[in-house]
Design a protein that fits this description.
Protein phosphatase 1J isoform X3; 9 helices; four-stranded mixed beta sheet; [pyruvate dehydrogenase (acetyl-transferring)]-phosphatase activity; Phosphatase 2c, domain 1; single chain; 470 residues; 16 strands; PP2C; alpha+beta; six-stranded antiparallel beta sheet
Length: 470
């Protein structure tokens, strides 16, 4: 059996939920600030140096200088060069220095087999403290009134067409989540239902009496029930959107090229929130059972959403694509014939008469790993890609790419867990060459803690990753 990586919770449940010491974290930068600094938890792995000898082009030197790996890997300059070596494809893991990542998280990565010059993926593991912005009553918060919240955060960012988007997301997305949670600190710690509205600051726009604008209430028989859990989900969803908007604002000045899929896990107040925008995957192994915590967003799985957008806004197709799907590309000689098709409302197939517009390239084509949207990209959700255009065209793809994640919630308090239970996160490079069951069987056979301990985050050990990398 392959060697395992220890990955489970050490003492979170037994600690009684007491928050850890407040970590230092710089404020979220605004759109006009200088390029944000890296989190102060540790030194960033130094950039690789250009090789000695003949002078390399300036573009090559700049590319090498911008290459970096996750801070927690603590790579030396030599280790960084090995991490960027396509020939050796060395497996990188955090050093065994006795200082573990939060929740005894395990991690391993290996560069791809030549799809891109550098490893464009990034990862992040943080403990984030959230201090409330104001009390629900609207009065200034006193230091002695209530405590802030602490959440644990893990993120995998699968970059493409450049690594800067993934790097930026790994540094800033958890800060956007923190910013969204500031208004919720006191609300989440209060067992009563969330207030319908937060009080306005006196004298601020919208704080005047607007009761005269309220219309008939006959259609509002009762107020919708809003849970604390849904507030956290909404905060995560908004954080993804604001992260994507920041990338759009700064893509020129900070050279944020490309994009990335994002898989994020937040542990807060006894619940695990898994947010996925892309084709990465998360599973929980509980008592030998595999529980999917995400689904992949590809042109196939989101066909109807893409087709609906193309149907409602045909100008986005630029006269080059059709929103309809056919089993294969329609040929000019088939004009007037009846061919199988399906539109944005259909899950089955039917026949239609082929018209001239049907000769355009389909919005969604191919199947499996070869499925593409607008013949260009194989994912339909993620961050960045604001400069992405259709091949040999100026038609933008971004309107069809959604930055909103799907968020699934796992309540740790509702289940009994054993030391072998684990949460596994992986980009598509892992899942393309192995299955959920294979990862489960190769996972840890035992771990720290005891019965009742929740599953800790885990990625394949170096030996496992070497076997999975293909």
């Amino acid at each position: 059996m392959l060697n395992r990586v220890r990955s489970a919770v050490a003492h979170l449940v037994s600690s009684g939920g007491a928050p850890p010491p407040r970590p230092k974290s710089p404020d979220l930068p605004n759109s006009t600030s200088a390029p944000p600094a890296a989190p102060p938890q540790g030194p960033r792995s130094p950039p690789a140096r250009a090789g000695s000898g003949s002078a390399a082009p300036a573009r090559t030197v700049e590319a090498r200088a911008s290459f970096s790996r996750p801070t927690f890997l603590q790579l030396s300059p030599g280790g960084l060069r090995r991490a960027d070596d396509h020939a050796g494809r060395a497996v990188q893991s955090p050093p065994d220095t006795g200082r573990r990542l939060p929740w005894s998280t395990g991690y391993a990565e290996v560069i791809n087999a030549g799809k891109s010059r550098h490893n464009e993926d990034q990862a992040c593991c943080e403990v984030v403290y959230v201090e409330g912005r104001r009390s629900v009553s609207g009065a200034p918060r006193e230091p002695s009134r209530g405590q802030g919240l602490c959440f644990y955060y893990w993120g995998l960012f699968d970059g493409h067409a450049g690594g800067r988007a993934a790097e930026m997301a790994s540094r800033l997305l958890h800060r956007h989540i923190r910013e969204q949670l500031k208004d919720l600190v006191e609300i989440l710690q209060d067992p009563s239902p969330p207030p319908l509205c937060l009080p306005s600051t006196p004298g601020a726009p919208g704080s005047s009496d607007s009761s005269h604008l309220v219309g008939p209430q006959s259609c509002w028989s009762s107020q919708k029930e809003v849970t604390h859990e849904s507030l956290v989900v909404g905060a995560i969803e908004n954080a993804f959107q604001f992260m994507d908007e920041q990338m759009a604002r700064e893509r020129r000045g900070h050279q944020v090229e490309g994009g990335c899929c994002a898989l994020v896990v937040v542990y807060l107040l006894g619940k695990v929130y898994v947010a996925n925008a892309g084709d990465s995957r998360a599973i929980i192994v509980r008592n030998g059972e595999i529980i999917p915590m995400s689904r992949e967003f590809t042109p196939e799985t989101e066909r109807q959403r893409l087709q609906m957008l193309g149907f409602l806004k045909p100008e986005l197709l630029g006269g080059e694509f059709t929103h309809l799907e056919f089993p294969r590309r329609v040929q000019p000689k088939e004009l007037g014939q009846r061919m199988l098709y399906r539109d944005q409302n259909m899950t089955g197939w039917a026949y239609k008469k082929i018209e001239l517009e049907d000769l355009r390239f389909p919005l969604v084509c191919g199947e499996g790993k070869k499925a593409r949207m607008m013949a260009t990209i194989g994912v339909t959700r993620g961050l960045g890609d604001h400069n992405l255009r259709v091949c040999s065209s100026t038609l933008p793809i971004k309107p069809f790419l959604s930055s909103f994640p799907e968020v699934r919630v796992y309540d740790l308090t509702q289940y009994e867990h054993c030391p072998d239970d684990v949460l596994v996160l992986g980009t598509d490079g892992l899942w393309d060459v192995t299955s959920d069951c294979e990862v489960h069987s190769s996972g840890p056979s035992s771990g720290p803690g005891g019965p009742g301990h929740p599953p800790g985050p885990w990625l394949a050990s170096p030996q496992q990753q070497a076997g999975f990398r293909g």
